[in-house]
Amino acid sequence: MALIEIRNLTKQFRKGEETITPLREVDLDIERGDFVSLMGASGSGKSTLLNALAGIDKPTGGRIIVNGVDITRLSRGKLADWRAANIGYIFQMHNLIPVLSAYENVELPLLLLPFSAAERRKRVELALDAVDLRDRADHYPRQLSGGQEQRVGIARAIVANPTIIVGDEPTGDLDASTTEQILDLVERLNTELGMTLLLVTHDPKVAAIAGRQLRLEQGKLLEKGREVAIVTADLEERSA
């Protein structure tokens, strides 16, 4: 059983009289420890798929099973709890809170979980060590470079040891040198810590570091130029 099983995933939006379908009956399996990149033209549905997997957007149809849990059937409250415990999100624009230090920004996800103050401190220090920013713990975002801000964002994404790390163009706002540093860090999260990653990007060089490269075209998910095909037992039987 794959860590992530996506079946017949469809997402539609209404725009005036028009119905837009960025995702059309998408199937995908992601194994624990996989590193997957996702490319596609602007508006192809990359972020829509990412946000559905992260429990941010509800699909119009289909199912998403993560570690045995069908997140498409969770209530809004339970989905929020699930997301806090299972998803680490790396944003393009860092999304750090300016009035909080690097330490406090990294600690934020832990405040939603049942950890003691001592456990929170331990996890924050480990996360900052992982991105080599322990010495910047007391610095505020305005005192950090763009690359350091993104590393703080990555530390925040991994601090709760989530089931999945998702990234939406995490190098899109960085220069070439800083991009290389961030990509090296992301690779180490996968190879050294065994984290499962799904990374949305428009840059082929960024996509190439992933073990699997996928592409969205006209609502369909392609791998190596072919539509992703899944052969598996019926999900209804296993989740009944």
Describe this structure in words.
It is a single chain. The protein has 240 residues and is of the alpha/beta class. The chain has a single domain (4-239), classed as Rossmann fold, CATH 3.40.50.300. It has 8 helices and 11 strands. It has helices at residues 46-53, 76-86, 102-107, 117-130, 146-158, 176-191, 204-207, 235-239; strands at 4-15, 18-30, 35-40, 61-66, 69-70, 87-90, 164-168, 196-200, 212-217, 220-223, 226-227. The strands form 2 sheets. It has a 7-stranded mixed beta sheet with strand order 6-7-8-3-9-10-11. A 4-stranded antiparallel beta sheet has the order 2-1-4-5, covered by helices on one side. Helix 4 packs across helix 5 (146-158) and helix 5 (146-158) packs parallel to helix 6. The mean pLDDT is 90.
Q: Top keywords for this entry?
A:
single chain; about 240 residues; alpha/beta; Rossmann fold; 7-stranded mixed beta sheet; 4-stranded antiparallel beta sheet; 8 helices; globular
Strand order of the largest sheet: 6-7-8-3-9-10-11
Q: For this structure, what is the CATH class?
A: Alpha Beta
Give me the number of helical elements.
8
Give the topology string: H per helix, E per strand.
Answer: EEEHEEHEHHHEHEHEEEH
Which parts are unreliable, with pLDDT below 50 for 5 consecutive residues or more? none
Instruction: Estimate the helix proportion, in percent.
Output: 25-40%
Beginning-to-end CA distance, first to last residue: 15 Å
The 3D shape can be described as globular
Mean pLDDT value: 90
The total number of structural domains is 1
Give the tally of β-strands. 11
Task: Specify the CATH homologous superfamily.
Answer: P-loop containing nucleotide triphosphate hydrolases
